[in-house]
Amino acid sequence: MLKLDKLSKTYATGDTALSQVSFEVPAGQVVGLIGPSGAGKSTLIRCINRLVEPTEGTITLGDTDLARLQGRALRRARRRIGMIFQEYALVERLTVMENVLSGRLGYVPAWRSFLRRYSPEDVSRALALLEQVGLSQHFNKRADALSGGQRQRVGIARALEQDPELLLVDEPTASLDPKTSRQIMRLIGTACRERNLPAIINIHDVMLAQQFTDRIIGLQAGKVVYDGPPTGLTDAVLTRIYGDEDWNQMRGEEATDEAPRTPEVDLAEGI
């Protein structure tokens, strides 16, 4: 379980990105984190894995307060947190398999990682994950030869290769077409259910969040203004999160955006 208690972040400029954020994410639950640009969504994700230093509060994963760790203890704790990035963060010149195996870098000695020597168990796990994400036939292809949807699948497999206790996902569908976006969200949800893995997904697409997450947390100006089921996102709640908008019209526009069209080519599934 992940537990945040009064987590806050104030930058040196005096700008407050997060203010007294508190919530828990139990094992196996997928949380959609929504809110307008500048609401603090990415800051929250990055505070949890300590890419951004929180100003105050606690971040507890299991029995460990991540906010208090430093040095080697922090590096060990980060092995327990899988991260899926918006821009994929792959090493373009390496193969798909090598990118997935990089999820084990925190577990192997430096000399083995430099020589790219991994155990048979690590390789078997990576092959199984590539099968799960539909890329087993592309294991030897360079990352820079993949489509956007394929790259995000590699990022999912790499994060799961860590055998994490928590999954953090930052805008996984921002650069993808609607069909591929749904497939990526479905893949993440399936992986979390199979592994009883808690996850927080920072996502800008409210309809995707409603369809593929178990719970929604809405941020506005660094504060939690909604925490509940996807079905609870009424027009009033959405206005509280995003401000005034014609939500019926927005839903119509989003439905039009998802009308059939020529999709991005994805060799794994014909996407």
TrEMBL record:
Q: Does the keyword Amino-acid biosynthesis apply?
A: no
Entry superkingdom: Bacteria
**Keywords for this entry?**
ATP-binding, Cell inner membrane, Cell membrane, Membrane, Nucleotide-binding, Translocase, Transport
List, in alphabetical order, the Gene Ontology terms for molecular function in this entry: ATP binding
Q: Which PROSITE patterns match?
A: ABC_TRANSPORTER_1, ABC_TRANSPORTER_2
Translocase: present as a keyword of the record? yes
| ABC transporter domain sequence ranges | 2-246
Q: Where is this region: Disordered?
A: 252-271
Q: Which Pfam families match?
A: ABC_tran
Stored SMART domains: AAA
Q: Where found in the cell? A: Cell inner membrane
Composition skew (Basic and acidic residues), residue ranges:
252-264
Q: How does it sit in the membrane?
A: Peripheral membrane protein
Q: Which PANTHER family match?
A: AMINO ACID IMPORT ATP-BINDING PROTEIN, PHOSPHONATES IMPORT ATP-BINDING PROTEIN PHNC
Q: What is this protein called?
A: Phosphonates import ATP-binding protein PhnC
Q: Which organism is it from?
A: Marinobacter zhanjiangensis
